[in-house]
Amino acid sequence: MLNSVVKTLQVGLVQQSCTADLAANLAKSIAQIRIAAQQGAKLVVLQELHRGLYFCQQEMAEHFDLAETIPGPSTQVLGALAQELDIVIVASLFEKRAVGLHHNTAVVIECDGTIAGKYRKMHIPDDPGYYEKFYFTPGDLGFQPIQTSVGKLGILVCWDQWFPEAARLMAMAGAELLIYPTAIGWAPDEDADEKVRQRDAWVTVQRAHAIANGLPVISVNRVGHEADPAGGVGLDFWGSSFVTGPQGEFLFSASVDQEETKVVTVDLQRSEQVRRMWPYLRDRRIDHYGELIKIYRD
Fold first, then answer.
1. Quick one: how many helices (H) and strands (E) in the chain?
2. How far is CA 104 from CA 25, 42, 119, 123, 268, in A?
3. CATH no. for residue 103?
4. For 223-283, what is the HEC assignment?
5. Based on the structure, what is the number of domains in the chain?
6. How far apart are the first and last CA of the chain?
7. Which of 237, 254, 160 shows the shortest CA–CA distance to 206?
8. What is the three-class DSSP state of 53?
9. Is residue 76 part of a domain?
10. N or C: which end of the chain has fewer CB within 10 A?
11. 53 near 18, Cβ under 8 Å?
12. Average pLDDT in the 288-298 region?
């Protein structure tokens, strides 16, 4: 499973706020990627849909104008940057695949500027403030890790992070890291205790994926208040980007309300050590898991 060359990996996380100015958002991301690279990062992960505001708070057809092709303008710019800095970049884009066919897509750009692969978000939410089913077709590329010069990356996106099946399938396919670009937050008028419970659940479920699969987890969320275009209360994105090791141990945890760029050292060899002590894959009883392919056991 482990990359034969890379033993430890310097991972850069960019947690940022966004505005309606797409060019300014991208310029901010590029500036922070440069800072992470200067600090030694060889892999830099951006948050979900980092080019602009989280437009899924309402169903508005004009927002389809924000979509772009892959390859396209953003991958061209980020590809040149990756080649210049000799790093791998995980970016999250609103993909226009065809007229009337769009995806929420994470694209991995190799250090030579080429596209190493992409992952189309599989689980699409449809909840107040998160009306993603209006915009995104569920992914059709499956749960396949993407091979890069820094390792085999298991990329999943936001709502995917709540599903243990997604993490498990990435692990079973040989992923060395689980990576979650994310856009999640609170409604400002929610009860304070409920806010704490929501954030704690979000952190806990991802730490559990690290533990259950013996893999490091990198989760990068956006931060800041974004207004509801229809005049509602909007969303306060809770930041809290983090990195854990393969036993769920925190290697880094960001603030809930500040922009941050952080470079974290991840020991890729620990997965081998941990899986020897906790051989979950060995002891899986796949002969009795057939019911999992049902939506519910009536």
1. 6, 17
2. 18, 24, 9, 10, 28
3. 3.60.110.10
4. EEEECCCCCCCCEEEECCCEEECCCCCEEEECCCCCCEEEEEEEECCHHHHHHHHCCHHHH
5. 1
6. 38
7. 160
8. coil
9. yes
10. C
11. yes
12. 93
Please give the positions annotated as active site: 48, 121, 158
Determine, yes or no, domain membership for 111. yes
- Transcribe 90-144 into DSSP letters: EEEEEEEEETTEEEEEEEEE-TTSSEEEEEE-----EETTEEGGGT-PPPSS-S-
**Average model confidence (pLDDT) for the chain?**
96
Segment 128-137 mean pLDDT: 97
Report residue 229 as tokens. Answer: 């275009």
Determine if the pTM surpasses 0.85.
yes
Domain interval for residue 167: 8-293
Report helix, strand or coil for 177.
strand
On the 0-12 / 13-18 / 19+ scale of CB atoms within 10 A, 66 is middle
pLDDT of res. 235: 98
CA distance 155 to 148: 12
d(CA 171, CA 166): 9
Compute the distance between CA of residue 150 and CA of residue 155 in angstroms, rounded to an integer.
14
Instruction: Report yes or no on 240 lying in a domain.
Output: yes
Which tokens is 230 given?
A: 């229809």
Q: How far apart are alpha carbons 223 and 255 in whole angstroms? A: 9
Cis bond upstream, residue 71 (ω within 30): yes
Amino acid in position 23: A
Confidence of residue 3 (pLDDT cuts 50, 70, 90): very low
Residues of the chain with pLDDT > 70, as a percent, come to 98
For residue 14, tell me if it sits in a domain. Answer: yes
**Cα gap 80→133, rounded to integer Å:** 32
